[in-house]
Amino acid sequence: MSRIDELARTLIIGDRSGEDLYGRVFVVSAFGGITNLLLEHKKTGEPGVFAAFANDDRAHGWQDRLDTVASAMIEAHRAVLTNRADVERADEFVHDRVYGARNCLIDLQRLCSYSHFRLSEHMGQTRELLSGLGEAHSAFVTSLLLQRQGVNARFVELSGWRDEGDVSLDDRIKGAMEDVDPATEMPIVTGYAQCAEGLMHEFDRGYSEVTFSRLASLTGAREAIIHKEFHLSSADPGLVGTDAVRKLGRTNYDVADQLSNLGMEAIHPKAAKTLRQAKVPLRVTNAFEPEDPGTLIDDQPADTAAVEIVTGLDIYAFELFEQDMVGVKGYDAAILEALTRHNVRIVSKVSNANTITHYVDTSLKALRRVEKDLAARYPSAQISSRAIAMASVVGRDLNGLSVLTRGLQAIAAAGHEAIGASQGPRNVDVQFIVERDSFDAVITALHRALVEGHDVKEVKNLKRAA
To answer: Which of 155, 181, 302, 448 would disulfide-bridge 397, Cβ 3.0–4.6 Å?
Structure first.
């Protein structure tokens, strides 16, 4: 979004004119860095307005951070808007929203100074209020930018700013789009939508994809397109080299789900489910290469078996060993209950007669809490956590490719060892558990062995030979 002026000329307008400009709805996120300032930094955890407000309910340090947000918003839109009148309107928009949010939070603090009210009970609504400021700002600025270039753009707000009532997501979208004519207008829609369901409660900062998918479903879109800063490719170019990676081009929702499980979201799995059920195909493109069709994701199976992507993530192996587990029920359920209670995300799992190991994506601090709970329940059990990594080979159809065997051989040939490996009967992914310090080298070795140098013809021949 910080390069929306460039995208307006290429992706949004390009060589289109007249009615060819329309028939598209754009759902936008906030300008780069704004949501970090409003909530907390996604990677470092540095507190933003929300975190400061939540942790300092009697002081006003959060107000200084809100001033920082206003300055960052103004700087962002002044970098892309060239008309003075547009800049003044955008400045006024920021001042109005920030002033309104400030007054709302001050009133909330004042209310919660009475013992009958608890600030903690309003944190969900506060987080949603603040988050919506970013998308509303970027959508408003984008509509100004496009209008100045002759496009009949329309700012469509779903953030519920000063609206009355608490409506469902579907009703929020339908109400906002009721008078919009996409054939003659270009709706610029906020990625955040205020609704009774409370998007951030379930999806946190993945809410824009949920809004996007629901909008596509309700409007009967021919295709849903996510514009990213990169192509979906066969591996991280920074690891295997830009000359070695391949753009996926075509895959299906099965693969998208596997990527989500590995934290590499092409789209939030629940957003993908919405599109899948509505039979709306998804396309992921590089926004800065608008002439490239990108990667199409639909429900179609592969024409031929092939490895499509090699990826992975750092995880922990959380292991419970209990000699008396053999033939006794209840261990699985107890471990799952503890992991769920402490909000630990499970990536995969293996077990044998007396050991259950969950591969999880979480913090060591959270695992220590789980360990404490289970140790109290099973005092004779040996419970441990180990920092490792998972490399995963994914494809719509891996049948006949001997991925497990060839992958283990490739890892060994590169001078590394797999701690564990698994392959399910559905044959859409194979997982290799490795030491963290060998993860990058393992990804490179797997990509070289399973992707590079294998065109479609070679893969077909390999499948027949198998």
So the answer is: 302
What's the Cα-to-Cα distance from 292 to each of 76, 249, 266, 369, rounded to whole Å? 28, 10, 17, 48
User: In this structure, what token pair is assigned to residue 318?
Assistant: 């959380």
Residue 165 is predicted with a pLDDT of 64
> What pLDDT score does 265 carry?
65
pTM: 0.83
Residues of the chain with pLDDT under 70: 57-59, 164-165, 265-266, 453-466
Which residues are 432's β-sheet partners? 391, 421
Residue-level pLDDT at 198 = 82
d(CA 15, CA 9): 9
Handedness of CA 345, 349, 355, 361 (dihedral sign): negative
**pLDDT number for residue 22:** 96
Cβ atoms of residues 212 and 27 within 8 Å: yes
DSSP state of 392: E
Would you state the structure tokens that stand for residue 314, as one six-digit string? Answer: 């750092």
Where residue 400 falls (left for φ over 0; alpha for ψ -120 to 50; beta otherwise) is: left
